[in-house]
Amino acid sequence: MSKLTGKIALVTGASRGIGRSVALRLAQEGAFVAVHYGQRRQEAEAVVQQIAQNGGKACAIGANLSAPDGIRELIAGLDEAIRDHGDGDGFDILVNNAGIGQILTFEEATEATYNEVMTINVKAPFFVTQQALPRLNDGGRIINISSFVTRVASPGVFTYSMTKGAINTFTLLLAKQLGSRNITVNSIQPGIINTEMNEGTLSDPDGQKYAAGLSVFSRWGEPGDVAEIAAFLASPDSRWVTGQLIDASGGSHL
């Protein structure tokens, strides 16, 4: 028996990057995975197909989390997945991964760019969690994807860093509130990971040298590095770990 057999997981922003790797890894452990996507339907369906080819089960749920009805659509899709694949009326694992990067300084930020990043990176996970929580089984898991920029001041990504600081506080508050239900809540803080968000940095030799030089391991991170941590946090092995901000930057800036 795999550690997540019989569990249902929802991973937001799972059509690519870290979310995709987390979805694949949770499915590998036996979970049924609801693969959320915003606009990339084909990529999300490819993730579902890959999970199926590996012997797992999954479905794709499309919802624009920045739209007024987006979260309602996501929760409706989750309810359908629970009805079709669960033994009860609840699910077990929520991974708040969906987010956008934003390379802007304090001076360059505008009200429009501020609202955009706050809506996707803070407002969406707040209300997704609020709406999903009545469906989350006691003993469940909430995993939030933050960033190491909350530990290392990075003025070049000013408002993005602020959003991840909010996610860290959100993690602590939820962990305190949900302890009585044996629900753990933790945050993973990746460093520079080889995803589309960091394509500009990692496509350039100087950027590659910089990214590799940050870590004590002299390399940049891969999505699978984060997915392995998520798999642990989703499993019964993490039952005594909650309210933690787990650095996943390969020792960057030690």
How would you describe this structure in keywords?
254 residues, seven-stranded parallel sheet, globular, 43% helix, alpha/beta, Rossmann fold, 7 strands
Notes on the structure:
This protein is an alpha/beta fold and 254 residues long. The protein has one domain (8-248): Rossmann fold (3-Layer(aba) Sandwich), CATH 3.40.50.720. The chain has helices at 17-28, 41-53, 70-85, 111-132, 158-178, 199-202, 205-214, 223-234; strands at 8-11, 32-37, 57-62, 91-96, 136-145, 184-190, 245-248. It is globular and about 50 Å long. It starts with 7 loop residues before the first strand and ends in a 6-residue tail after the last strand. The relative contact order is 0.15. The mean pLDDT is 95.
Which strand order spans the largest sheet, edge to edge or round the barrel? 3-2-1-4-5-6-7
Order of helices and strands: EHEHEHEHEHEHHHE
Tally the beta strands.
Answer: 7
Stretches where pLDDT is under 50 for at least 5 consecutive residues are: none
